[in-house]
Design brief:
With 127 residues, this protein is an alpha/beta fold. It contains 2 helices and 8 strands; from the N terminus they run βαββββαβββ. The strands form 2 sheets. It has a 4-stranded mixed β-sheet, with helices on one face. It is globular, with a radius of gyration of 15 Å. The model has no long low-confidence stretch (mean pLDDT 96).
């Protein structure tokens, strides 16, 4: 096996998602980005979030499915301020699957599906 990478397939919202993720995650970098010919739809993008490579595209085929909360991106926050801010920002027009709180397994935790349907788990555990 050469590699394994997270792949997020959107249906026309990939570019908006990339721009939003760049606002939420200051450390996110766009390693590559190509658009479909004569379009603003993303043919392929490669993002890097703290070493996690994420491929992103807009599907040219319309599907009857979207993202599932059963698969999520797990983010370990460095400070209480960071988890509070990220949880609040990602929740805008999204849905709290587990609202920000203390659940016994971490000092603070939130599981949020963003406005694009991608699920994020945020945790804070001081060490």
């Amino acid at each position: 096996m050469k590699s394994a990478t997270t792949f997020l397939m959107f249906q026309g919202q990939a570019n908006a998602a990339i721009q939003q993720y760049k606002e939420w995650f200051k450390d996110l970098t766009v390693e590559s980005l190509t658009y479909m010919e004569n379009s603003q739809q993303v043919a392929m993008a490669v993002l890097n979030l703290k070493g996690l490579k994420v491929m992103v595209n807009d599907s040219v085929i319309k599907h009857n499915f979207t993202f599932t909360p059963a698969t999520s991106i797990f983010v370990e926050c460095e400070t209480l301020e960071e988890i509070d801010n990220l949880a609040a920002e990602v929740l805008v027009d999204g849905q709290a699957l587990m609202p920000l709180g203390h659940y016994g397994f971490s000092e603070k935790f939130a599981w949020i599906q963003d406005r694009f349907g991608v699920s994020w788990q945020f945790t804070y555990n001081p060490s």
